[in-house]
Design brief:
The structure holds two protein chains of two kinds. Chain A is α+β, with helices and mostly antiparallel strands. Chain A has three domains: 160 residues, Immunoglobulins (Immunoglobulin-like); 96 residues, Immunoglobulin-like; 29 residues, no CATH class. Chain A is elongated, with a radius of gyration of 53 Å. Chain A starts with a helix and ends in an 8-residue tail after the last strand. Chain B is mostly helical. The chains are: A alpha+beta, B mainly alpha. Chains A and B meet through helix 3 of A and helix 3, helix 4 and helix 5 of B.
Amino acid sequence: MRGRTLVLSTIALMLLATQGTVANPGGEGDGNRDFVCGGSCHGDPALNAPSSAIISITSGNTAFTGTAYQFDTTIEIQSISHSRILGVFLLSSTNGNGDNPEDNGWNIIQDPSGTTGNYVEVIVPTSGVVSLTWVLKAPEEVGDGNLIVAIHHGAGYEGLAYLGVSDTHSIAINPVPANLPGFAPDWSAPNYRVTGDTSPVSLVTQNATEISVEWKLEGESFSHLATVEAGEDDEWLAYLPATMGDGRIVYRVTTSNGEFDVVQPWLTMGTIPPEFDGSLMGARAQGFAGAFMIIALMVSLQGIMQPSGRKHELDQTEEVKSSEETLPEPEPVVEKTPVNEAEEYRARLVKYEEHPGLLWDPVDEEWVDDPDYGGDE
Amino acid sequence: MFAQTLHHLVVGLTTGIATLACLCAIAAWSSNYFVGAKNARGHFDAAAYIAGIAALPLLPIAVLSGTAAMSDPASDAMSYNKFLFTGLTTGFLASMVIGRWRFGPGVWNESRLALLQVVSAVGALASITVLGSIGAKMALGESTMDMLPFWPAFDDSIIVNEWISLALFILGLAAMVAAFMLGPKVERISLN
C-alpha cells in the first residue's frame, strides 16, 4: 500500500513538473535559431497543424558573390493567437537543423529588427499582412543558393502550433562583374545613431564614382533624397536627418560608375540615447552643493522673515514699561482724617502781636476778629 | 547582496521617518487654520522636530548603502538623479529642523516663518517621493508615479563637469556659512 502511494505520488509530481515546460506562447525572442527549435517543439502531429498563412517572396533570383542581397518576404495571415505573435525563420534548407543561411555561406548583415539573426518575432497588425526584409551578403562561391521562409504561430485558444513553410526561393550566385560598384568589403552599416545627432553617415564603396542616397522613416511610403558629399578614399558622407526617441530611419544607396547602377538593399538605423558622462564624485559634489544652497537660502529667509524689531506706531508698551522702571517709589498715601470745618478755618488764621484782637485769614485775605480776645467775630 | 538588503532597510527607515516629519510639519501649519487645534499643534510640532532630527543622519547612510549596492553608481541618469535629489531632500529637511531649532515651538505662531517651515516640508516631501519613485523604477521597473499621466524625465539629468561640481560645492558651503555667520541674529519666539 505504501509503495503504491509512493509510485502514485511520484507520477503526480512528474506530471506537475511538466507544466512548466509545455510551450513558450510568449515567444523566445529574436536570435539565430534552426527551424528544429520550432519544429521539434511542435513536431508532434497532435500538437501542430498547417498554417493557412500565405508566404510570398519578392526578391530577385540573382546575386553576385560577396555582395549585398536583399531578401523580401510578405506574409498574409488571417488566423492568429490573441497575442498576435508570429515567429519567422529565414532558412537555407528544410533539413530542420544546420539550416541557418550562415551555415550555407550567406552572411546576415541586417535582419528586420536591425540585428543579425535569422529568426524574428513580430506582432501581426490587424491588417494581417507582415512585410519583412533581410539584408544578406551572398556566398563567396559561385553556384545556386536557396532561401526559405518558415513561420510558426498560435491561433485562437486551441493550444496548437501552426507551422508554415514557403516555397524554396532559388538564387543564382554569379561571379562579380569586373568593376561592379558596391560597398567596400570591410564596411559595415551603422546600426544605431545617438539621438539628435546630425553628423553625416560615412559610407565606403568600391568601384563607385557616384552614389545617391534615399531615406525614409520606418513605415513611411515615400523616400527623400539625401545630400551626399564625396570624402577621401572612396568614402562618402550622407547627411540624414537626426532621429529622436525610438525613431528608426531606413536608407538605400545606389552605387554607380557609369557602367553599372547598383541599387543596394534598404538599411535600417535605430536611435540610442547619448552616452552618459556623469561621475560619482561629480554627483556627490552636486548633491552636497544643492543641500548647502537650499540651507543657505532658507536660513537667510528665516532671518529676513523673523518678527521685526520695529514696533507699530500706536504700540506704546515699551515706553510704558520703561517709564515704570524709571519712576521713583511713590510716597505712601496718608489718609486724611475727617476734621471739622470750623476747626480747619481756625487753624488757618494767623495771629499778629501788633494787631491784638484781630487774626489774618490768608485764604480770603482779610482781618477777622479773634474770638479768644473777646470779640464776637 | 548584503549591501542591497541593508540599503532596502535603511531606505525604508529614512523615507518613513522623513515622510512622517514632513506630514507632521504640514499638519502643524494647517492647525493654525482650525479653531481649537492649538493642543494638536504642539504634538505635531514635536513629532516633526524629532522625526526630522532622526531622518537627517539616516540620509547619508542610505546614500552610502545605495552606493555600495550598485556595481557602477552614478553611471546612468537615474542613479545620478538619486544623488541630486538626496541633496535636495537633505537641504529641505535640514532647513526645517534648523528653523524649528532657532525659533522654538513658537515658530508656527508667526505666519511668515510658519509658511517658510511648511515650504521646506513640502520640498522635502516632494524630493523624497521622487527619490522613492526613481529607486522603485530602477529596482522593480515600476513605481507609484507610473499612475501619473506622464513620467517625469528622470532618465535624463543635469550633468556638469567634475570641477564645476566642486566649485558649486564650495560655493554652497560658503553661502551656508555666510548665511549663519552674517545673517541677522534670531530670537526664539514666545509661545504666547
